[in-house]
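Run log // design_07
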């Protein structure tokens, strides 16, 4: 799961067709503990997230599929606002998160 914290807005004076009315937000990727990891990125918002919100985002083709028009050029999309993160003490946290982190 890719987690991030909304850190700001992106202002675009011109948008490609299909992205009109879609908000763009700056997201700082974070780990399960809330510590920054990697560089901030711009993400299309499908959830009405705001500054400081912890969000779940997706990248690549899945980001475009999350948009009302699935053929828009987006690299990242916010798909959920996260209320709480729980870590199972008996589970290993490396499989999903580490695999995705190596590709970005």
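design_07 sequence
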């Amino acid at each position: 799961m890719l987690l991030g914290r909304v850190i700001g807005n992106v202002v675009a004076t011109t948008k490609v067709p299909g992205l009109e009315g879609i908000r763009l937000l700056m997201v700082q990727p974070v780990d399960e503990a809330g510590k920054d990891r990697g560089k901030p990125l711009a993400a299309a918002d499908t959830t009405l997230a705001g500054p400081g919100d912890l969000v779940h985002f997706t990248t690549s083709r899945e980001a475009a599929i999350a948009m009302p028009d699935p053929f828009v050029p987006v690299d990242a999309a916010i798909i959920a606002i996260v209320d709480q993160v729980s870590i199972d003490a008996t589970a290993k946290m490396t499989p999903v998160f580490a695999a995705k982190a190596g590709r970005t």
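The beta strands are 2-10, 23-30, 41-45, 54-59, 76-81.
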